[in-house]
Write a structure and sequence with these properties.
Blueprint (H helix, E strand, L loop, with lengths): L1 E6 L2 E6 L3 E5 L8 E4 L2 E6 L2 E4 L8 E11 L3 E7 L4 E7 L2 E11 L1
Antiparallel strand pairs: 1-2, 1-5, 3-10, 4-7, 5-6, 7-10, 8-9
Length: 103
């Protein structure tokens, strides 16, 4: 059984017991997070697709840690003008374990 959820502007395919990193969700280690924006659920070969979300379906996860992704270097330059600018970015992430998918 698996589900497709929407969080942080992205879609993630999850199953029970999966560990995934999503954009930062407020909470501490051990807190429970429930996702109501479930786009699709597949169980025993039967697929239910929402328009856009499924009613009464929840995915529950537990926060394992709050962390940061690797650093991304952003470099801008205009040739022959002497302009260059170097910046960086580290995305804040939440690692979580999916506990259950309730239909």
């Amino acid at each position: 059984m698996y589900a497709v959820i929407k969080t942080g502007g992205k879609q993630h395919k999850v199953s029970e017991g999966d560990v995934l990193s999503v954009e930062k969700i407020n909470g501490n280690k051990g807190d429970t997070v429930s996702f109501d924006e479930v786009l699709m659920v597949a169980k025993d070969g039967k697929i239910n697709v929402g328009t856009p979300y499924l009613d009464g379906v929840k995915v529950v996860g537990e926060i394992m840690e709050q962390t940061k992704d690797r650093k991304i270097t952003v470099f801008k330059m205009k040739r022959r003008k002497g302009f260059h600018k170097k910046t960086g970015h580290r995305q804040k992430l939440t690692r979580m374990k999916i506990r259950e998918i309730s239909i």
